[in-house]
């Protein structure tokens, strides 16, 4: 069985390394030539909560992979969400009629993948574990978290069980009949994570800061409310519980405070204390996934006549940090809050 992992960075690197460690054959493909060379010459090293391990692996650049011209049975797509189409489209000729493309990404990429390869070859996946690409051949792994697989139409199928068995080389994998619920649940969580990247602090410190809590919860509520407009009920995971936030009238401040403190405690204990969004902005000096995650939500909201002022302002501020016209600062959170309370956004 040809298992190919497109994107050998944080998520793809960890998944592939565990597959190989457990005896599965998996091939990496990445645009980073130094990373590919390091993997081929010296292996891929994973540093994680349970220690470090090194696997010997085969890796290709996209051009080399196309030159190999080997048909792919299972393709795990692990590139940044904004690169989905450019990464997948050239590889479509390598897919068979019954190949499966699985997105281990953030956002609603399954929609774009289904357009490219067909819904019958697309498998839904929600993944939440944290990891960081450190340098060629080396990945920091934050530890086990939720991973759900599901057919886009909510049905159960033999291939779901087959993929579950394969991915259990990494850790506990669950099957769901509501993969869209998890994907939208993570989008609401993404709103919070993008907000934590407005400031050069840990995720936990922002979540614990009660000064901006009301504003940040309303930000997440905008996304959860939009999901309900799409007739999707966002589902919770790993300490994130959308139903504690929306509907607004059902919020219990005591229970919500306890849940957020528990979430902050989990964030603080993770090896990765700042988000990948923060890392994109502060370390890698590159664009975040906001164009592929939150920006599309604004268009969906327009169809429903739903205003998303906080999400819109958050997108504006993140893009300004991306292009260098704004710096990370607590002033950004204050500005977000002031504009929201004054009703000027």
Automatic annotation (TrEMBL):
Q: Name one GO molecular function term.
A: 2-dehydropantoate 2-reductase activity
EC top class named in words:
oxidoreductase
Keyword annotations for this protein? NADP, Oxidoreductase, Pantothenate biosynthesis
Q: Which residue ranges does the record assign to the Ketopantoate reductase C-terminal domain?
A: 178-322
* Example GO BP: pantothenate biosynthetic process
Q: In which pathway does it act?
A: Cofactor biosynthesis; (R)-pantothenate biosynthesis; (R)-pantoate from 3-methyl-2-oxobutanoate: step 2/2
Domain called Ketopantoate reductase N-terminal: residue spans: 3-153
Keyword NADP part of the UniProt annotation: yes
According to its UniProt record, which reaction does this protein catalyse? Answer: (R)-pantoate + NADP(+) = 2-dehydropantoate + NADPH + H(+)
Q: Which Pfam families match?
A: ApbA (PF02558), ApbA_C (PF08546)
Q: What does this protein do?
A: Catalyzes the NADPH-dependent reduction of ketopantoate into pantoic acid.
* Family that this chain belongs to: Belongs to the ketopantoate reductase family.
Looking up NCBIfam families in the UniProt record yields: apbA_panE (TIGR00745)
Quote the protein name from its UniProt record: 2-dehydropantoate 2-reductase
Taxonomic lineage from the root:
Bacteria, Bacillati, Bacillota, Bacilli, Bacillales
């Amino acid at each position: 069985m040809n298992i190919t992992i497109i994107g050998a960075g944080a998520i793809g690197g960890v998944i592939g390394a565990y597959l190989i460690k457990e005896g599965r054959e998996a091939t990496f493909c990445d645009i980073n030539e130094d990373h590919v060379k390091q993997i081929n010459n010296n292996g891929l090293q994973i540093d994680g909560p349970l220690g470090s391990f090194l696997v010997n692996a085969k890796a290709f650049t996209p051009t080399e992979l196309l030159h190999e011209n080997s048909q792919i049975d299972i393709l795990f797509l692990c590139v940044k969400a904004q690169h989905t189409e450019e990464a997948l489209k050239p590889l479509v000729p390598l897919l068979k009629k019954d190949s499966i493309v699985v997105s281990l990404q953030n956002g609603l990429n399954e929609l774009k993948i289904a357009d490219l390869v067909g819904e019958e070859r697309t498998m839904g996946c929600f993944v939440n574990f944290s990891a960081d690409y450190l340098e060629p051949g080396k990945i920091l792994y934050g530890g086990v978290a939720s991973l759900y697989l599901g057919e886009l139409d909510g049905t159960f199928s033999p291939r779901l069980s087959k993929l579950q068995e394969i991915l259990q080389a990494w850790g506990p994998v669950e099957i769901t009949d509501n993969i869209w619920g998890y994907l939208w649940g993570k989008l609401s969580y993404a709103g919070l994570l993008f907000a934590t990247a407005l400031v050069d602090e840990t995720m936990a410190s922002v979540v614990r800061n009660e000064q901006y809590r009301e504003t940040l919860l309303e930000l997440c509520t905008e996304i959860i409310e939009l999901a309900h407009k799409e007739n999707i009920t966002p589902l919770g995971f790993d300490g994130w519980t959308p139903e504690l936030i929306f509907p607004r009238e059902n919020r219990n401040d005591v229970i919500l405070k306890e849940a957020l403190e528990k979430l902050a405690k989990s964030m603080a204990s993770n090896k990765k204390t700042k988000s990948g969004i923060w890392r994109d902005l502060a370390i890698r000096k590159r664009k975040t996934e906001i164009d592929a995650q939150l920006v599309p939500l604004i268009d969906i909201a327009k169809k429903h006549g739903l205003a998303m002022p906080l999400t819109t302002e958050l997108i504006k501020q993140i893009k300004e940090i991306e292009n260098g016209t704004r710096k990370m600062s607590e002033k950004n959170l204050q500005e977000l809050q002031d504009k929201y309370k004054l009703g000027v956004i």
